[in-house]
Amino acid sequence: MGAVRARWMVSRVAGVLLLVLAAGCGGASAKAGPGAPAGWRTWAVRATGPEPAGRCLPTERLLVCPAAPAGVVARSASTGEVVWSVGAGKGRGRNTGAAVDGDRAVSAGGRTLRAADLADGRAAWTRTLPAGRAFGPPAVSDGRVYAVAHGPAYTDPQTLLAYRASDGKLLWQRDTTTITPFARGGRVITFEVGGRAVARDGRTGEVVAASDPAHPCPSLISAPGRLVCTEERTAAGDTFPPLVRVDPATLRFTRTLWRPDDKPSGGVISPDGVLVLRTVNAEDPSTGRWIALDLTTGKTLWRTEGPEDGDGNDTVVLAGTRAVWIAGGRLVSVDPRKGPYATGADAPRRSPAYPEAAGRRSPLLVAYGTHLVVQARTGPGLRSVTAP
């Protein structure tokens, strides 16, 4: 159980949060980007407040960012300016994450789980745990909000709670050994001790599928109709279990894709079934490479060697049909099947150098269609651009 908690604290929280306060933020002039989705424009803003720690969440009109202690700050997709905020900067504590779905934005921090109306930021409902308990990162899907209540010690019981998104009514609760639920359609998946993925019906909480313990599944990379089990923790002896593909409906093992020599750390699946994956040296996370695997055949399509490796940055997103990562302060866009060494029409595309994408600022990427937001975690700043 300790390994599961440690993985959440280090990997999951670092991957889903961005603490941005509304005070002291200013925006540059906005303009339309070529091919940008409706509502999104190019802009750059500087943000003051706590150092960022993860990703904001894009919608058609907003960029929604969790804010300490259990709040949300929503920015205009057109200008980057703050449109509304709720629960931000009120009290002490750290935000553990946010989620958006339908007309709700949900944020958690400490004992508080808070939902807001996406349209205008009005507080929809709030739930508070007893003293000594805290919420982990929430997940939202199909009109339900999921969050795990846990205590300060590894041995404390952990409870998966399901709430109705519209009014916060508690629908059911179940024991779990995880902190971070994964919501997908009408199901919620938890990763239990021993690397076993368990899927529950979101309406009832009853188990409807579980992965084979013989094929560890402590983390998932997902795309419509596809699920890949991976392991992002540092394993004993720097050995890592194989990446395996599982059936989305049953979670049953379907095939082994690859046996990694280094630690998997971030990945996306393209619409035509290519997994673009980052692997890093377990002893030196600043070094690593990108690799592409065909999910149908298991064939390795390409891997990076050299300057395209990404300068130790393992954030990757799918912008339209292309994979985008950061290398040398620029955004690198590649055809997932052809890779970064293709030529002609399939050649990689590179953006100008952006200050927010500099390695020293520990940048992250957020994608909405073919539009991207670069988030600098050190010296907080946000830049909205069209994907190269």
TrEMBL record:
InterPro entries: PQQ_b-propeller_rpt, PQQ_rpt_dom, Quinoprotein_ADH-like_sf, WD40/YVTN_repeat-like_dom_sf. The keyword Signal applies. It holds the Pfam family PQQ_2. Gene3D superfamilies: YVTN repeat-like/Quinoprotein amine dehydrogenase (2.130.10.10). Keywords: Signal. Residues 1-32 form the signal peptide. It comes from the Bacteria. Residues 72-208, 231-340 form the Pyrrolo-quinoline quinone repeat domain. Residues 337-358 are annotated as: Disordered. The keyword Signal applies. This is PQQ-binding-like beta-propeller repeat protein. The lineage of its organism: Bacteria, Bacillati, Actinomycetota, Actinomycetes, Kitasatosporales.
